[in-house]
From TrEMBL:
GO cellular-component term (any): mitochondrion
InterPro entries per UniProt: CBR-like, Cbr1-like_FAD-bd_dom, FAD-bd_FR_type, Flavoprot_Pyr_Nucl_cyt_Rdtase, FNR_nucleotide-bd, OxRdtase_FAD/NAD-bd, Riboflavin_synthase-like_b-brl
Lineage, uppermost ranks: Eukaryota, Viridiplantae, Streptophyta, Embryophyta, Tracheophyta
Alphabetical list of SUPFAM superfamilies matching this protein: Ferredoxin reductase-like, C-terminal NADP-linked domain, Riboflavin synthase domain-like
Catalyzed chemical reaction(s): 2 Fe(III)-[cytochrome b5] + NADH = 2 Fe(II)-[cytochrome b5] + NAD(+) + H(+)
Residues involved in FAD binding: 136-138, 153, 155, 161-163, 204
Keyword list, A-Z: FAD, Flavoprotein, Mitochondrion, NAD, Oxidoreductase
Naturally occurring in which organism (per UniProt): Spirodela intermedia
Protein name (record): NADH-cytochrome b5 reductase
Cofactor(s) of this protein: FAD
Entry similarity comment: Belongs to the flavoprotein pyridine nucleotide cytochrome reductase family.
């Protein structure tokens, strides 16, 4: 970690796409004709500490798409738990950490946008002596085209069984993973306008979709994100989000915090009807609103998902402002 922090300290403030983890990946089907390419990076400022997070830039491989897809190696399995080795960690905020897990450098993880993975950790034994497990879903924030690694951004809660387990892993330890689990299948230009409401680590699927949009020059989707957090120090990957908004006219980002500091210049308080009316696209056939965050925020904004994890009834602010169930997706 000391080496990681030294590399962060040497990174230029202008290098919004400089590398924190200093890793490289390969391009090519099965490694044939592969060449070394530098990773990009994400600048995230939390709690006054500049953190550069490695991000893979899109890679062009000179192979026919169909042949490439047929020969690609995929690390994930939807049917069995696979072990992935922890390579490195970095602190993003006072309670959030970035975890990089590695696998065969010639393989992709096997995700689509926007899907998640399931993680599993042992949790003692039951009365019959059988192993018990805690299972939790997470959305990787690394590019789905990345080879040989994936990154998880996790908020570590004092009582969080899985987050505490992952936080306790050391480089070389393994995490059991299964997937992908399909959430929201994004396709280019599926809607003219996409509004996003995120809270805390609910930013992860939103970032996955935004990155998919901006790397495709033929995708003209307009994106507006409302991102809510407890305090300015809790805003995850703010540097990356600001860089995306500055570089792409079709991406707008608005922040609001419950406990603003004196220097804070964004919104204050919970997401409100006024924020939705001013910041998100109006209800319509070519509008989709995506929501992801803690249960309290979901209930306030859109209503929670049903007990069987289907979308459930739309309620809250989005219903009050005229959106219908067909216009809203709850992660």
């Amino acid at each position: 970690m000391a080496g990681l922090l030294r590399r962060l300290g040497r990174a230029s403030a202008l290098a919004v796409l400089g590398g924190a983890f200093g890793e490289q990946h390969r391009c090519g089907a099965g490694g044939a004709g592969a060449r070394r390419l530098p990773l990009g990076a994400v600048a995230a400022v939390s709690g006054g500490v500049a953190f550069l997070y490695t991000w893979s830039s899109p890679v062009t491989c000179h192979l026919e798409e169909e042949k490439q897809e047929a020969s690609e190696k995929v690390a994930l399995s939807p049917d069995k738990w696979t072990e992935f080795k922890l390579h490195e960690t970095a602190r993003v905020s006072h309670n959030s950490h970035l975890f990089r897990f590695t696998f065969d450098h010639e393989a992709k993880l096997g995700l689509h946008v926007a899907s998640c993975i399931l993680t599993r950790a042992p949790l003692g034994e039951d009365a019959e002596g059988k192993k018990k497990y805690v299972i939790r879903p997470y959305t990787p924030i690394s590019d789905i085209e990345s080879r040989g690694y994936f990154d998880l951004l996790i908020k570590v809660y004092p009582e969080g069984k899985m987050s505490q387990h992952i936080a306790g892993l050391k480089p070389g330890d393994v995490l059991e993973v299964k997937g992908p689990i399909e959430k929201f299948r994004y396709s280019p230009n599926m809607k003219k306008q996409i509004g996003m409401i995120a809270g805390g680590t609910g930013i992860t699927p939103m970032l996955q979709i935004i990155m998919e949009i901006v790397k495709n020059p033929d995708d003209n989707t307009q994106v507006a994100l409302l991102y809510a957090n407890v305090s300015p120090d809790d805003i995850l990957l703010k540097g990356k989000l600001d860089q995306l908004a500055a570089a792409h006219p079709n991406v707008k980002v608005f922040y609001t915090v419950d406990n603003p500091s004196k220097a804070w210049r964004g919104g204050a308080g919970y997401i409100s009807k006024d924020m939705i009316l001013k910041g998100l696209p109006a209800p319509g056939e070519d509008t989709m609103i995506l929501v992801c965050g803690p249960p309290g925020m979901m209930k306030h904004v859109s209503g929670e998902k049903a007990k069987d994890w289907t979308q459930g009834e739309l309620s809250g602010l989005l219903k009050e402002t005229g959106y219908t169930e067909g216009m809203v997706f709850k992660f």
